Amino acid sequence: MKHTPIKPTIDFKDFEKLDIRVGTIEKVEDVEGSDKLIRLKVNFGEFKRSILAGMKKERENCKEIEGKQALFIVNLAPRKMMGEMSEGMLFDIGYSNEITPVLAKPEKEVPNGACAG
Hints:
With 117 residues, the chain is mainly β.
């Protein structure tokens, strides 16, 4: 594992700006023309989002995460990638450490839309 330095200290007020919620990944789809991106259809209870994640090369079968809950940031400004809008960001663990990433997920099932933090 590659160890990374601790990032600069932030104020708690900055952390509180992040809206981190649990969502269930209902569907995983390929993003045409991308060797990296997949499209996640995520259920947050009161709303659903389409979130692009660059994990195509990290897993043999990306569909294995369908039906799983994970943590997402839901208040990032939408971002256009490969001609599609991503409406949030998936949390995963390990990418910057150069290990095969895994989902950041609750220890047991919780209601979709539950807030973290």
